[in-house]
From TrEMBL:
One of its GO terms (biological process) is regulation of DNA-templated transcription. The keyword Hydrolase applies. One of its GO terms (molecular function) is phosphatase activity. It comes from Streptomyces roseolilacinus. It comes from the Bacteria. Residues 145-192 form the PAS domain. Pfam families: GAF_2, GAF_3, HATPase_c_2, PAS, SpoIIE. This is PAS domain-containing protein. The keyword Hydrolase applies. Keywords: Hydrolase.
Length: 870
């Protein structure tokens, strides 16, 4: 009688075999059939391999549960292949030959098996019977003395958290509130990832989202409490569905040191049945099948199996750096993993052979040799055995098992552990190299993207923000950037960023209260302990003040202090920002409490700091030069327009080019004396700094010569000589210069000289538009000029419009605004003030073409108001 079924289809890709193994293992464990899981996984692996690898078709796997056992069917879609017939004598294939081996394994391991055909498929099935066992017993351990039982608190609390299909928390029990501090109202509806500190390297291994989708999962991670600290927990996840078919995941969580409450006991090795000859791979015997396909999973499985093999209380695995001088903690069990992960210890800790990770070592009592194993300081472990992991004679890591009681281990345990280490060393190194390759590819992509972003701005503040945003949270939990203005200045805290925005203000206050790191130009990251020490002192003082008051819940002040202390309590490193052989700042990266940086991250941060330093220095130089340029440009503009009684004046000026305030066009209006005013509008050939230099010469020369009492022609002739004296730096210049003298009758008399410039236009009160001058030779070309001035009288209501060629030569394709187009615009300005006339002309110029103007532009309007407006 079939009581349950599970089915899945696997496409013909390389990962299909491993996925099928996981599917069968999870299904059978979910049904409670752990005793036959290994055999079922081996047979499924062989049959699916035949289908997807050798036959090249998809494989359909069906698991059927009955009262007396399990039947597994594997179907492929290529039934034409020959299959060895039962009862026909055939030579057995070689053991290392894959074709046909799956059917031989079925015959050896299964209670019953067979092959069935249909027009489109071939089914290979096998059945595994359940072993006889006492009713109601699934697993039983030996009776143990009380002192050897697992340690737990007097009141064991099991947090029950239910996760809906979106990853949000749907249920949160009272024990969860007690363990982590959040009430059900605070937790329900939020993502579990908001609380979980998942021990996972980006790009490798299984993440929290993947673990929640597995049918069953067990392991260790952390939950952030309300005080910001990470609480290590051991979790058991079970994926279920309700009566309506909706899936969810039930998570049971206990404190990590109480893992025995939830952890599935290891299956005892059973003896082989008579007549069977089964050779097991030593690596698979130790690690289990299927082996994890990622480095973190492989290392975690290794330490757990090592601890169980020697019946230890804790185990740890460290990987060697490329130069074999340091070991980096990568996996632990039974230890505060959050505190130890990625911490580094030296390979050679002393002169004794027992202080070198290159040799096996047994310490019967760590109290007799304090500090012999720095990783175990303060953990309560008394005895430890460590063995090296070596590949081709090169040290690649170290594996250790520890116990809380003294004298637990001797040479015999060291030999057993070394045997296991020798079997897994090559697999660990291969997985490590694969992870490094993935990290390096990711690092290259990261650095390319960072370089593009940094090269895309020359703004100093934006560069600082980009530096911090690229490091947080990719490389670090928080970041601070110090800048140094010059060699005589102290480092200044310029930017602070934390992955939790609520921590930024507290972090900034903390760093502002401590001395900045020394600006050492030595490349590479160096540890800076000042922030963590300052945070600990602040937290201690806040706690003492709180204890001196009436016992009450933590105030917001002490809560912020404790949260800041937790945020900066881990490892903090400083990388110099060196550009053009000068230290221009420091990049500071930090981790939360008891956390460390891995070596690959520090190397990536060092590469980033070099690029960021150059970008920051470029932004600094650009800012300085822009400030100088703008200051010089502003000095070329008139300080302000004078107020002229009886005449309205307005000017609009636009310089072409990004960052330019002054170009080749210029204007001026200034008092000459005796009630007269000089005005000018001109255009130097070209744009940019060279044209601006001639602009400054022309404007200042005009003022000086006009105030000497010279007339318009004489002023321009002397200016022409000054321009020619510049030699190769000279530029020819078009200039409209005039003298304005208001009269008592409300009119104004103008004397105008137009040297090669667009003619000024006069708008009469009746709407008539006419040129107000005649063209004459431009300046800066000929030595001898014969210029003359013309007199124009502006009656009340008249407007004089003076523009540069940036207005008249405005283009849209083959069309050009021109003098006629400008005159048409001016005819519509009757009755408008001088400012309104200038604004209307500017709008007409801007709307004439869709593209922005590429030439400098100046508009000067003079208007004599009507008598009733005086």
């Amino acid at each position: 009688m079939i009581t349950a079924r599970a089915a899945a289809t696997f496409e013909p890709v390389g990962r299909a075999v491993a996925t099928a193994r996981a599917f069968v293992r999870d299904t059978l464990q979910g049904w409670g059939y752990s005793d036959i899981v290994d055999d079922a996984v081996v047979l499924t692996s062989e049959l699916v391999t035949n289908a997807v690898i050798h036959a090249g078709t998809a494989a359909d796997v069906l698991c059927l549960r009955a009262e007396d056992g399990v039947r597994v069917e594997v179907a492929d879609r290529y039934p034409e292949r020959e299959v060895p017939l039962q009862g026909v004598a055939q030579p057995a294939p070689a053991p290392d030959r894959e074709n046909g081996r799956g059917l031989l394994l079925c015959a050896a391991l299964a209670s019953r098996w067979g092959v069935e055909y249909s027009p489109t498929r071939k089914h290979v099935w096998f059945q595994l019977d359940l072993p006889d066992r006492p009713v109601g017993t699934r697993h039983a351990g030996p009776a143990l003395p009380t002192e050897l039982l697992p340690t737990a608190d007097e009141r064991i609390r099991v947090a029950v958290v239910q996760i809906d299909p979106t990853g949000a928390i749907a249920a949160w029990n009272d024990d969860a509130e007690h363990l982590f501090g959040y009430s059900a109202d605070q937790a329900v509806g939020k993502q579990l990832g908001d609380f979980a500190a998942w021990p996972h390297t980006p790009g490798t291994g299984t993440g929290l989202a993947e673990a929640l989708r597995l049918s069953r999962w067990e392991g260790s991670y952390g939950i952030r409490g309300t005080d910001g600290r990470v609480i290590p927990v051991y979790a058991s996840h079970l994926r279920v569905r309700d009566t309506h078919g909706e899936p969810s995941t039930v998570c049971l969580l206990v404190r990590d040191y109480e893992r025995a409450v939830l952890q599935t006991p290891p299956r005892a090795a059973g003896g082989d049945s008579a007549g069977e000859s089964r050779t097991a791979d030593p690596f698979e015997v130790f690690i289990g099948s299927p082996a994890p396909d990622d480095l973190d999973g492989l290392l975690q499985r290794t330490v757990e199996r090592a601890r169980d093999m020697l019946d230890g209380d804790a185990a740890f695995l460290l990987l060697a750096t490329d130069d074999e001088t340091e070991l980096e903690v990568r996996a632990t069990t039974g230890l505060p993993s959050a505190r130890q992960r990625f911490a580094r210890v030296p390979v050679e800790a002393g002169t004794s052979r027992y202080a070198s990770a290159r040799m096996p070592a047994v310490h019967e009592d760590l109290l007799a040799v304090p500090g012999a194993v720095p990783l175990l300081n303060g953990t309560g472990m008394r005895s430890v055995v460590t063995v090296p992991l070596k590949v081709e004679g090169r040290l690649t890591g170290s594996l250790g098992v520890a116990a809380e009681s003294a004298g637990r281990y001797a040479n015999e345990e060291a030999l057993r552990l070394q045997f296991a280490a020798d079997r897994i060393a090559l697999a660990v190194e291969s997985a490590r190299l694969g992870e490094l390759e993935r990290l390096r590819r990711g690092s290259l992509s990261f650095l390319v993207e960072a370089s593009d972003l940094l090269a895309g701005t020359l703004d100093r503040d934006q560069t600082l923000a980009l530096m911090a945003q690229m490091t947080v949270p990719t490389l670090a939990t928080w970041c601070a950037v110090y800048t140094i203005a010059d060699q005589s200045s102290d480092p200044y805290l310029s930017y602070v960023l934390h992955e939790d925005e609520e921590r930024i203000d507290g972090l900034k206050e903390l760093l502002s209260g401590v001395a900045p790191p020394d600006p050492v130009p030595t490349p590479g990251a160096r540890v800076w302990s000042v922030p963590a020490e300052a945070a600990q002192r602040a937290a201690l003082e806040a706690s003492r003040r709180q204890l001196g008051e009436a016992s009450s819940p933590l105030s917001s002040g002490i809560g912020t202090t404790l949260a800041t202390a937790a945020a900066v309590g881990g490892e903090t490193v400083v990388l110099p920002l060196v550009a053009r052989n000068r230290v221009i700042g420091m990049l500071t990266l930090g981790k939360p409490s008891d956390d460390h940086f891995r070596q690959e991250i520090l190397e990536l941060a060092e590469d980033l700091s070099r690029r960021a330093a150059l970008a920051l220095d470029n932004a600094r130089l650009y800012s300085e030069r822009t400030a100088i340029s703008q200051s010089l440009q502003r000095s070329l503009l008139p300080p302000g327009l004078p107020q002229i009684a009886g005449v309205e004046v307005d000017v609009i000026y636009r310089a072409a080019g990004e960052g330019n305030e002054v170009g080749g066009d210029f204007y001026d209006l200034f008092p000459i004396g005796d009630g007269a005013y000089g005005f000018a509008i001109g255009d130097v050939c070209g744009t940019g700094p060279e044209a601006a230099a001639v602009t400054g010469l022309a404007r200042h020369a005009l003022r000086l010569l006009a105030r000497e009492g010279l007339g318009g022609p004489a002023v321009l002739e002397r200016l022409n000589a000054a321009i020619l004296d510049e030699g190769a730096r000279s530029r020819f210049l078009t200039l409209l210069y005039g003298e304005l003298r208001p009269r008592e009758d409300g009119s104004a008399v103008l004397k105008v000289v137009c040297a090669g410039h667009p003619l000024p236009l006069r708008l009469r009160q009746d709407g008539t538009v006419e040129p107000a001058a005649e063209p004459q030779p431009l300046l800066g070309v000929m030595d001898d000029l014969e210029l003359y001035e013309e007199t124009v009288t502006l009656d009340p209501g008249d407007v004089l419009l003076c523009v540069t060629d940036g207005v008249t030569e405005r283009r849209e394709g083959t069309r050009m605004l021109g003098d006629d187009g400008l005159a048409e615009v001016l005819r519509t300005c009757t009755g408008l003030t001088a400012g309104a006339v200038a604004a209307r002309v500017l709008r007409a110029v801007e709307r004439f073409a869709a593209e922005p103007a590429s030439d400098d532009m100046a508009i000067l309007t003079l208007r004599v108001p009507e008598p009733h407006r005086l």
